[in-house]
C-alpha cells in the first residue's frame, strides 16, 4: 500500500491511524502505518509532554503525527465562565434529571471532569503545539476546519505537513486556500464530527476538488477490502480511527464500553449533536436518545453543548452506566468483534488488501496478477 | 467487468441499470450491461406490454429484466378508498395550502395522476408480472422486501432470477431465507428508499451475511472508479439508477427537472419521508423542506403519504414548479453534470474502471499490470 504520500512520509503502508492512546499510535507506526496521537484530552502541557516522550521512545524510529482541535476563527476575550453563563437553566435541569433517572453517582470532591471541551479552546491547542513542535512530528492534523495561518506557517517552517478534515468539496477547497497539505475526506459513516455525504461519493469528489493535493479517505474503513476500495477512489491513503478502539493497546478504562463496542452492529451508531452541539457519529445510547427526543429540550450549539454535558459524560464513563455509556465511533463498529493487537489488525488489513486486489484483477480479466 | 453473475446472465459488464424508461433499459443492455425496467408506473397492463414489446425489439437480443414494487405481506380486502379515508383533513389542507402558496395550477378535467402509489398495490404488481412473464426477462427485482413465495416460485419455474433490495444485513438474510437469488445492497447514499448504512460498510457486510448469494452494490456509484471500488468490496456487480436520469435516452418530460439534476451537487439531496412515508433519498426542494419542517404537520406512514401527495406531485411535475420540483436521486447527482448517451456513460464507466484498476495495482506494487 504505497502512494506518493506514504513514500514522502517514509511509511510502508498508506494507513493513517488516529487514536487518543500513545500505545496505539506507537504500535501503528511500528507496524508500518502512520500513528497520529489525538491531543484534545491533554489540557496540561506536561501530560502531553510525558506521552509524547513515551510515544517517541516506542515508535521504533518511525514517523508519527499529532491531531489537535483548533478553531480557525479566534474568539477574543471569551472565557469558559462566559460560555457557561449562556447555558439555559432548563438544559442544566434536563441533565440533572436524566442522570438522576439512571441513578448516576456524583464525582468525588475535586475530581477532574470536562476535558472534552477545554481541549478545544484555542489557547489549550496552542499550548499543545508549543509542546509538540519540540518533537519530530511529521504531520499536524486539525479536526475542526483549517488551523490559523500562523500555525500553518509554523508547521511548514519545521517541515511538518498539515492535514485538515473536510466533509464536503467546499470545505476541502477552503483548506487548500489556507495552505493545507493534505485533506482528510471524512464521510458520513465515520465516527466523530461528520457531514452527510458518504465516503463512496465524497472521496473522489474531494480528490477532484483539491487536485493535486493528496487526500486521505476516512469513514467506513475497517478491512483491507475497504482500504483497497478507498484507494481505488483516488485517495492517497486511509485515515482510520474507530478500528483501534478495541485493540489490546487501547485503554478505554471501561470494560463495559469495550463490551458495547464489540457487540455493536453497523446500525447501532447515530449522528447526533448530543456530545458537542455539532453532528458527530457515536454509539447510539439512551443518552443520545434523550437528547434527540423531540419531547426533550434538544441540544445547544457548539461549544455550549459540550460544556453542558462534560461532567455528566465523565460520570457516566466513570461509573460505567451501561444504558448511557457511549463513545464516538463509525459504522465500521459492526466489524469490531474481537480484541486484537494493532499488529494483528495491520496483518488483517494488508492480507485483505492483497486479496481485494487479486479479486478486482480477476474481474478486470487481468489474470497475470 | 466480469463476475460469476455477469457470466451466468450472459452480459459483458457486471453493471445493472435500473430505469423507468424502456429506451434507457434497451441502451444499457445493448451497451453490454443489464437493463432493468422499473414497472411501478405501469398501472395498465397494456402500457407495460407495449413498452416491453419495444424493449424486447430494441435490446439487440441482449438480456434484460423487470423491477416491481410488491409488498411481501398481503393486505386483504383494503381498497384505495379505504386508505384514502385514513388521511387526516389537516394533512390534506397542508397540501392545498402549500400548492396555493406557489400558485400551482390544477390538472385538467379527467387528467390522470397518482401512478406513484397505485403501482405499489399488490394486485397491480401481479398484473405487471402476468404481462412480464410472457417476455424473456432474465431477472425480476423487487424494491420493497422479498416478493411473495408464489411469485418467487413462478419466476424460478421460468428460469428467472429474483433480486431484492436490502439496506441491512438482517434484511438481506430474510431475502436469502425467502429463496431470493441476488441481494441488492442499497447504501445510504442511494436514490429512493434507503437505510442509514453507507455503501462502503453495507456492501461487505451483506456479502458476508448471505454468502454464497451474489450481491449487487447500489448507492454512490456513478463512475468507473466507484464501480471498481464497489466490486473490490465483494459485490458481483453494481446496480445504478440515478446516473441514467440525465442520459439523452431518458425522458423526464421536464427540461426544468433535467436542469435541476445537472446543476445539483452531492449535498443537494435529502433522505425524506415526503414522497412515500418511508425514508427515500431525493432532490431537496422547498416541497421536501415543507414536509420535513417541524412546524408543519409532518409526513404520514406508507402508503398514506404517497396517496396524499400523488396528485400534488403530478401537478408540480406537469407545470414544472421549479422550487418544488424534485425526483428520487442519489448523492451521485453531483457527478451528473452533462447530458450524455447511455453508450457514452458506459464508455466512461469502462475507461474509468480500467484506470482505477491500474491505480490500485500501482499502489499494491504490481507493476506488471
TrEMBL record, chains A, B:
Keywords: Flavoprotein, FMN, Monooxygenase, Oxidoreductase. CDD domains: NPD_like. It comes from the Bacteria. Pfam families: NMO (PF03060). GO terms for molecular function: monooxygenase activity. SUPFAM superfamilies: Inosine monophosphate dehydrogenase (IMPDH). This is Monooxygenase. It comes from Streptomyces incarnatus.
Amino acid at each position: 500500500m504505497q502512494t506518493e504520500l506514504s513514500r514522502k512520509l517514509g511509511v510502508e503502508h498508506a494507513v493513517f491511524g488516529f487514536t487518543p492512546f500513545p500505545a496505539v499510535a506507537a504500535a501503528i507506526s511500528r507496524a508500518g502505518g502512520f500513528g497520529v496521537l489525538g491531543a484534545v484530552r491533554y489540557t496540561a502541557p506536561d501530560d502531553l509532554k510525558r506521552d509524547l516522550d513515551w510515544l517517541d521512545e516506542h515508535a521504533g524510529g518511525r514517523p508519527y503525527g499529532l491531531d489537535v482541535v483548533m478553531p480557525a476563527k479566534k474568539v477574543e476575550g471569551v472565557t469558559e465562565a462566559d460560555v457557561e453563563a449562556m447555558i439555559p437553566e432548563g438544559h442544566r435541569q434536563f441533565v440533572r434529571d436524566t442522570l438522576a433517572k439512571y441513578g448516576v453517582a456524583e464525582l468525588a470532591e475535586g475530581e477532574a471532569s470536562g476535558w472534552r471541551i477545554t481541549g478545544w479552546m484555542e489557547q489549550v491547542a496552542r499550548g499543545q503545539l508549543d509542546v509538540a513542535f519540540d518533537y519530530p512530528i511529521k504531520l499536524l492534523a486539525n479536526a475542526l476546519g483549517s488551523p490559523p495561518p500562523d500555525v500553518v506557517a509554523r508547521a511548514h517552517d519545521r517541515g511538518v505537513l498539515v492535514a485538515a478534515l473536510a466533509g464536503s468539496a467546499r470545505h476541502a477547497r477552503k483548506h487548500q486556500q489556507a495552505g493545507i497539505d493534505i485533506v482528510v475526506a471524512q464521510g458520513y459513516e465515520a465516527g466523530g464530527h461528520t457531514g452527510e455525504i458518504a465516503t463512496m461519493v465524497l472521496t473522489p469528489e474531494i480528490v477532484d476538488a483539491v487536485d493535486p493535493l493528496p487526500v486521505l479517505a476516512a469513514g467506513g474503513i475497517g478491512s483491507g477490502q475497504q482500504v483497497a476500495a478507498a484507494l481505488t477512489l483516488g485517495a492517497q491513503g486511509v485515515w482510520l480511527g474507530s478500528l483501534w478502539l478495541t485493540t489490546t493497546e487501547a485503554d478505554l478504562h471501561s470494560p463495559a464500553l469495550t463490551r458495547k463496542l464489540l457487540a455493536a452492529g453497523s446500525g447501532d451508531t447515530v449522528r447526533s449533536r448530543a456530545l458537542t452541539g455539532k453532528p458527530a457519529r457515536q454509539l447510539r445510547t439512551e443518552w443520545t436518545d434523550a437528547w434527540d427526543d423531540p419531547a426533550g429540550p434538544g441540544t445547544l450549539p457548539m461549544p455550549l453543548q459540550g460544556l453542558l454535558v462534560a461532567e455528566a459524560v465523565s460520570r457516566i464513563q466513570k461509573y460505567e452506566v451501561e444504558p448511557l455509556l457511549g463513545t464516538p465511533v463509525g459504522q465500521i463498529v459492526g466489524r469490531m468483534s474481537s480484541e486484537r493487537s494493532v499488529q494483528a489488525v495491520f496483518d488483517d488489513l494488508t492480507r485483505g488488501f492483497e486479496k481485494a486486489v487479486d479479486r478486482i484483477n480477476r474481474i478486470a480479466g487481468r489474470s497475470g496478477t
